[in-house]
Design goal:
The protein is an alpha/beta fold and 323 residues long. The protein has 4 helices and 18 strands. The relative contact order is 0.09.
Length: 323
Amino acid sequence: MHGSWLRKQSGQAVVLVAVAVVVLTAILALALDGGGIYLDRREVQNAADSAALAGAELLMTVPPSYPSIHNQAIGNLVKNLPGTTIAGTVCSATCPNQAMIGPLGGNGVGTINLGAGYFAQLWVTNSYTYMVAVWHTHHVAVAPVHGFQSTITLQARAVAQNANLPYAVVVLQDKPAYAQWHDLNITGSTSVLALQGGGPGARGGVFSNANIDPGNGIPAITFSPAGNAGDLWAVNETSGDQTLLNAAGRVTGQQTGGSLPRAASHLDFPSYPEPSPPAASFNGVPANTPTRSTCKPRGRRSCFPVSTRCRRVGSVCRGRCVP
């Protein structure tokens, strides 16, 4: 009977070992593939962060140069991603003069192929914001044993801003957008806008999202020291005001020679969140509310107005001022 019982138990070890192998390989996949995915994702994110900062550094060049911005960003990107190169991409010689390069393909991945499974998209989203998105095809080792796919696509996105405006005066009003408002209007024949500064790192000049009207003064706008204190930029200057700006002696001392104003690209409103105003409060009470302060003393012995409800108690008037 004992031998019959043993024969019934034969083969159980095989089942237990099979279950244990499945569990152990799952733990192994979590350790090896999960750790590799985490490290790769961190590397891709660091590269995207660095490239976004590199590109944003040149955002405030006036006028902006999209090729220069993208070249600096993608050059930084390939330095931080192993096995990548710009050879054969749209930036192999120089990046194109477009705000966004590497548009998403049908699979939702950027179309700048840097090699080694890395893809990218670079985008000047507005006048002070730059975005870099990077995708990487990561190969896993143990997960396919359990029937999972052998690759996984990792994505990292980074956004950087640059508010280092090279202007002394910035006028953003342009509603409706790109209208030819006289954002800066100098009136009177003796009115002068004097902009002083100069030297390394100085910020001078005037930027308008619309139009600069210098008026009829001679000069109307002057820079000091001459040739080193800034320029004038406008997005949508009218022909009439442009003629005024370029009249002899109207603007003196600008840093860059040639026709005024210099061409500029639109600056978007920052859309900073505006705090809600504090709730108005008043700790006083209406004059017809019973209180110690509504009756006023008159002389030493009485209170005003005279009423049975307005009486003096000791040195204090109490009651209401309603007769």
